[in-house]
Every structure is written in structure tokens, then in C-alpha cells.
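User: Thanks for the earlier help. One more: argininosuccinate synthase. Can you show the sequence and predicted structure together?

Assistant: Of course, both are below.
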Amino acid sequence: MTQCRAISSCTSLNLFPDASRTDLSGKAATSLPLHELGVKAGGHSIAHCSSKNLAPIRINKFAIRAVIASDKESIPVGVTEGKVLRKKLDKVVLAYSGGLDTSVIVPWLRENYGCEVVCFTADVGQGIKELEGLEEKAKASGACQLVVKDLKEEFVKDYIFPCLRAGAIYERKYLLGTSMARPVIAKAMVDVAREVGADAVSHGCTGKGNDQVRFELTFFALNPELSVVAPWREWEIRGREDAIEYAKKHSIPVPVTKKSIYSRDRNLWHLSHEGDILEDPANEPKEDMYMISVNPEDAPDQPEKVKIGIDAGLPVSVDGEKLSPASLLSKLNEIGKRHGIGRIDMVENRLVGMKSRGVYETPGGTILFTAVRELESLTLDRETMQVKDSLALKYAELVYAGRWFDPLRESMDAFMEEITKTTTGSVTLKLYKGSISVAGRESPFSLYRQDISSFESGQIYDQADAAGFIRLYGLPMRVRAMLDKGRYD
């Protein structure tokens, strides 16, 4: 589902007020609107004037001719007074949340790049409250269009489920909630840029985090022609107070929501928490920080069983009810939530080199990972499982590092799809006060044979055969022991 809302008509900035000016030599210079100068879309703009305080602009006729002749030539130094654009862009698609940062990015882009700004918001299951009032906020910030896309089903089916099938876990704990969401959002931004005719995309990621890499590698992979603007790596704003001051200066309404002491990211898969007391790994998280899982101590005193149906390595049903990918995950989130399932506290290595501490809530995802892994214990042989587990580490690293559209990940995904064709069946799990235990596994492709595994003698396995196997298997150890004995006798 795609919703496209036109917020306001976007007109080019009038960089040349209708008044005669004087060039640097003191002669009268013609003042013309930008479109009459013939400056092409995507070319360099000469200057920018705030609509509230029009600074005098002196235009040298030679400079005008230079701009008309070539939209790639730089403007001679000293030709203009006032705000000089960093680069002239036509239209920018901005990843927009409606918070303080993205609210000030809208006017900042217009001021520094002379462009129209199309705000884009992806619904990846962050909650209806996060989507409320976005049209009004975007309009107040100066955006010319708001595009909202519901990506929940695509997110789960095409991003979460492949990682689940691969068994991708980063550094033993992290189930890649944010890492999987960024490429689906960035891909949608590339699509929107094509739909609205934008020549650039922008995001509000800081220069210290992983997300800037995840967004931009996706942009590079899907449309390398797009320009990318990352304000946090360019502007002079250094914190919340600077952003508020900038917003006031440009008459942008500051979001009045209470600032959380934690930095959070939420989608249908997980909720992450960083910052404040969590920055010291010695501090235990406060209970009031958690939002989508109950305290395991307060969970029901009676365990609950849940049966997960799996087809070719992917979940398809809960307690016999077939559900769409997003609906299935939503249902398991609710079940896991009430039993305090999926809380993880970890110190991880960020892609940019530093360590960071985060706390994650992933109730439904933890249930699914447990179910798929347990079914594989029936359907995968030892060698295949070991190779799969080793590749899962690399798979997780690629996803964490933003290389979703890397040919290596896509090739590994083809391998994962092939070897899990027989991972079909069901797993029954027991949930109790934050823990998950297995209550049962079954598969029509099970490699487990009771007649072989039984202690009773059978026709397929002759216990007497084990003697020869052990002698051959232990031959290197016997030879080494014989050598050592001969050496020291």
C-alpha cells in the first residue's frame, strides 16, 4: 500500500529579487528570476536569500553568462554576497520520521542545496503513534510532498525470513532487527526517487553509527547516480539544543514530544535501546525501560505451549493457523511479550570500529529462531549443519554491515534456500518466565530413525561394526602414542 500526499506546491527559490543591483565594478547589473537565466535543473545556483531577510545580491553579467553556458562551472569567488549553496540539487527524497532531527533537515536541505524536499516514511511496524501527524509536521517544515509506504509484509517476507532461514545472528546474540530494516527502507527511497524524479536522497543518520553505511550502500547498489546528502556529516548542528535553535530561527515548529533518555529503534521484529545509563556496561538496565516485553518475574506462573509450522525453513503457521509473514510475527510478538521472551543485553562491535552497548527486545523473533533451529536438528546432517552454521556467521556480518544487496549475500541466500528445502514440519515450544524449552519436534523429512538410534540391536546398525570404526578413527592417536613411547623408552 502506498500513500502519496501532496503537501504544498514547491516553487524555485527566487535568488534574484526584482531590483537593480550593482556589480563589482560599480556598473548596473540586470536582476532576473532564476528561470529566465536558463539555469538547468541540477546546475549550480548562484546564491540564496532568506525570504525573511533578503540580503543584497550583486550579479556580475560575466557570471550569468558562465552559468548559462555550463551548469557544471563553479561560480567565481566574490561574485555573490549572501548564502552560497553547497551544490544545486533539484529534488531530494528524505527519510523522514517527524522528529526534531528530520524536521530541521527539511529547511536545511532547501537552504543549502536549493532543492525541493520529498519526505518519505516507511511503515515497518514501528507503531501507529509514530505515523500520526506526519503530514502536518512535514508541511510545517517546508516539504513539498509526503510519501508513506506500508512495507511490513515485504520487510518480514523478503528480509527477516531469509535471515531466519540462514540462522544469521551477529556476535552470538543480536538478531539484526535494525540491520534488516534499513535496506528495505533505503530500497523504497530509491523507488520513490524514481517515481518523483528526484536526483538525490538524504538521511538523518549520525557519522558515528552503522545506519549511515546501511542506507548508503543500498543507494549505491540500486542507483549509483543518486546524490546522497548526510546532514550530520556536514552541518554545524552538534546536538539537540542546536537543532532547536535552528528550528526557531527558521520558524519550524519544534516537536513537543518528551525527549526519551534512550535512543530507540522499533520495527515489527524488535525494539532496541541505547544511551543514558546503558553507556556504562556495568549498569543493569532499569525495568521501566522495557516496552514490548513484561518482566519475566511478573510473567504468568503457568507455562504456555505454542506450535510453529515450518515449510522449507520458513514459518507458515502458529498453532495450526496459517498466517501471512507480518501477521504471524505480530501474533508471536504478543505471545512472547506476556512471557518476557527475547530480552538481550550485549556489548557489540560497531562497523565503524567502536564498541557499543545495547539492549534488545525481540519476543516473536526469539521464538522463531528457536523453532527453526530445533527443526533443523531433525532435517540437517552433521556436515551440512556445520557448513550452514559457519556461513551464517558471514551472512550476519554482511547484513550488519549494510551489504544486503551484495552478490555474496545473495549467493549465500541461494545456498541457504537449497539446503533447507527439507526443513519442513513443526516444533512445539514451552514458554515460561523468559525461557523457551522444546516440547516436541516432527518432520516428514526427519533423519532421525528410532530403529537406528534405539539401544536395541537392529538390522541397519550392527553394534559389532563399531569396533573397526573406532580402530580406524583412532589410528592417528595410536600412531602418535607409539612414537612417543618409542622415543622415551
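User: Great, one quick takeaway?

Assistant: The chain is about 35% helix and 20% strand.
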